[in-house]
Write a structure and sequence with these properties.
single chain, about 260 residues, alpha/beta, Rossmann fold, seven-stranded mixed sheet, 12 helices, globular, binds adenosine-5'-diphosphate, binds magnesium ion
């Protein structure tokens, strides 16, 4: 989408999306955001899941008066909700439980597709951030579709598991619909990040299938399954802070490098 002056804005908004739960969306949003921030990019993470897992992983306390909800219904400015995320170059808009109310309140409203895009207008104009990452909830409800309508690109984390491909085709279908109905005709499927990889016959077969169906989309780095990743949220740490030289930390840093190369910076 273009800004009001008709120029392409520089800030890129990327939704990390897959309607399946437990596939590594939040883990990928947090660690990719943090790895890019550590490389000098100005990054904003917007937690759009009422479970607030991204906020928790970064050790950010969630306060009830700082929810995205009032910004989605136009009562406050989204920019006023931005907080430092205790890491250089990284900011966050935390989530709050009340976000689940959006699903009920906005479903009937005309603005349910455009609420997030409208809320981000000032943020896009200001051009302060290089990248804005949206951590989305595990459903195809209002929050997810509004994120898909508001973003420039989608990255899909995918577990190396049976039925993962079916989940992928569903989100690609929804993206096609959003493009076709003109709400976000520039929406791009940027890529697929394979998560929780272990070197089994099944995982390798899933990877081979994705490579066959969507040859250019898959990031070359696969995120390995690692207990250190699973435990890092309970310490309020990214994987780079929790286990800097572990395989998953190195993988997320390699993904950040690939992301920058794919975005020519
Ligand atoms: N590479 C990994 N290795 C081991 N556990 C992981 C890995 N990535 C994510 N997890 C764990 O799997 C669970 C689901 O991940 P999460 O990122 O919350 O998925 P989603 O946001 O898609 O629901 C979490 O408990 C998380 O800590
Ligand atoms: Mg999540």
């Amino acid at each position: 989408m273009q800004d009001e002056s008709g120029r392409m804005p520089r800030v890129k908004v990327i939704a990390i999306a897959n309607q399946k739960g437990g596939v590594g969306k939040t883990t990928t949003t947090v660690n990719l955001s943090a790895a890019l921030a550590a490389r000098g990019k100005r990054v904003l993470l917007i937690d759009m899941d009422s479970q607030a897992n991204a906020s928790g992983t970064l050790g950010i306390e969630v306060e009830s008066d700082q929810s995205l909800y009032p910004a989605l219904i136009g009562e406050v400015l989204l920019e006023d909700l931005i907080r430092p995320a205790r890491r250089r170059n990284l900011s966050i808009i935390p989530a709050h439980m009340d976000l689940s109310g959006v699903e009920v309140e906005l479903t009937q409203s005309d603005s349910h597709l455009t609420c997030m895009y409208d809320a981000m207008a000032g943020l896009r104009r200001s051009n302060y951030f290089d990248y804005v990452f949206l951590d989305t909830p595990p459903s195809l409800g209002v929050l997810m579709t509004s994120a898909l309508c508001a973003c420039d690109e989608v990255i899909t984390p995918m577990q190396c598991e049976f039925l993962s491909l079916e989940g992928l085709s569903k989100i690609l279908y929804v993206m096609d619909q959003i493009r076709e109905n003109g709400v976000n005709s520039r929406l791009k499927h940027e890529g697929i990040i394979m998560t929780m990889y272990n070197n089994t016959k099944l995982a390798n077969e899933v990877i081979r299938q994705v490579q066959t169906v969507l040859p250019d989309k898959m990031y070359k780095t696969w995120i390995p399954r690692s207990v250190r990743v699973a435990e890092s949220p309970s310490f309020g740490r990214t994987i780079m802070e929790h286990d800097p030289f572990g395989t998953a930390s190195l993988a997320y840093q390699a993904v950040a490098k690939e992301f920058m190369a794919r975005h020519r910076n």
